[in-house]
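User: Please predict the structure of the protein below. I'd like the answer in structure-token form so I can feed it into my own downstream comparison script.

Assistant: Understood. Taking the following sequence of 276 residues as input:
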Amino acid sequence: MNRKALIAAGIAALAGLGMLFLYMKRFEAEASGGPPVLVMMAMTKIPLGAAITRQMVGTRPLPSAFLEERHIRATDAERIYGVRVSMGVNANESVLWTDLATTSEQRRDLSALVRNGQRAITVRAGQTSSFGGMLRPGDRVDVLLTADRPGAATVAGVGDLSMSRVTIPLLQNLLVLAVGRDTGGEQVGAAGGRPAGGRGPQLNQVTLSATVAQSSILTYAADRGELTLILRNPDDITILDGLPETSARDILEPERRAILLRRERPETAPEIERVQ
């Protein structure tokens, strides 16, 4: 009798261990997000408007619980080779269907480049702000405004209105969607080899991606003064706080000019001065 009880207890223990093992496996699968699915990722940075090649992309496993419709499965890799990206993709980021230009021709409609929540707004930029035609879609810029300070000349009692003009850092890190008619696609103009709008009077028309609030600021600022675009490194997306405005006194008075320059002096400035 005791032997049968021991056998039954052993069987029950084994069954319990088996159920515990299955439960642990199920728990691990649920905690990890389920079985992995291979999705496409960028091996190197893919610039805005670039056509995807085999060398640019690879695969990585993604738990099925985190898989979205936007993810491109490895089984669909052949469908994306040669397709241009409508927005730049950084290395080690997933390549999504929403990153691709879906137009059938080798051109990109401006509206397709505007991200959700953003707007496209065109500003007029002089030859300096367009960098002699070298500004390109996908670049990032800051915007400066030079305008008269309302009432400044009256308050100061200065007759020369130029003394009331100031330059202020208006907006930072705005994405360039188009320069003239160039949206980054392979549109060939009549001259051949360059995108339509790459030369001529439309060179000073730069279309930026901005929020509604930023678009309102740009519109008002353009009516009040002159906008200047300054180019950023494509990997620099830092927003600087507390940037000062610049007036005539900051330029003409050596003490104020020195203070203004010291604000942006790097930490290694003493070493640079010794070298000089």
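That's the full token string. Helices lie at 2-31, 110-113, 152-156, 212-224, 248-252, 254-262, 269-275.
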